[in-house]
Amino acid sequence: MALRDAKVLASSLALLAATPVLTGATDLTGNLEARVLASHNRERHAVGVPAMRWNTDLATSARVWANHLAATGKFEHAPEGRADHEGENLWAGTRDRFSAEAMVDGWVREKRNFRSGRFPDNSVTGRVADVGHYTQLVWRRTLQVGCAKATGGGEDILVCRYSEAGNYIGESPF
Q1: Are 141 and 174 spatial neighbours (Cβ–Cβ below 8 Å)?
Q2: Is the N or the C terminus of the chain less surrounded, counting Cβ atoms within 10 Å?
Q3: Among 23, 36, 8, CA closest to 104
Q4: Secondary structure E strands in the chain
């Protein structure tokens, strides 16, 4: 009887341990803050720069702009002159189809066009737009991030704001 009880207990513990994975499969952006931050910091760790911390003020700023984009159907960076010269990354994709990690990975995939060097001369294509999201994400002196997701027009929109901003001409990302 003790062996059977141990097997039942082991099975129950295995199911309990798997519950977050199983429930996460149906909620692509649940716990957005932690998942987006972890995705950023995974890539930052890979290139040897310090991890970022979550900043609620940046997240609030990002939420305002994400809601604006969702409401207007536009997809554009916020006007210059944002408080504290925040950096900004934007992502958009079909509603409820992308995980938080996949959204950030859209920016990370730009590293295939990245070459070491000073900004903006660090794109193998010669176009800064092909690496600018990636370089902002891994910019050494950027230590805080805040992001928000909004939905409008059948799209999810992710806005991330960064402090300090990156992509300064003549400087190296890391």
Answers
A1: no
A2: N
A3: 36
A4: 53-54, 87-94, 144-152, 155-163
pLDDT, greater one: 7 or 135: 135
26: enclosing H helix or E strand: none
Question: Over the Cα atoms of the chain, what is R_g?
Answer: 19
Neighbour count for residue 81 (Cβ, 10 Å): 6
**Degrees (nearest 5) of the Cα angle 6, 11, 14?**
125
At residue 45, what is the residue type? H
Length of the chain: 174
> Two tokens at 96?
């409820």
Q: What pLDDT was estimated at residue 22?
A: 42
Cβ contact 135:119 at 8 Å: yes
Q: Which position has the higher pLDDT, 141 or 20?
A: 141
- Give the Å distances, CA to CA, from 127 to 4, 6, 20, 123, 131: 64, 61, 41, 6, 8
Compute CA distances 125 → 28, 43, 68, 104, 172, whole Å: 32, 21, 32, 21, 17
The two structure tokens encoding residue 25: 């499969």
Q: What is the largest CA-CA distance in the chain?
A: 72
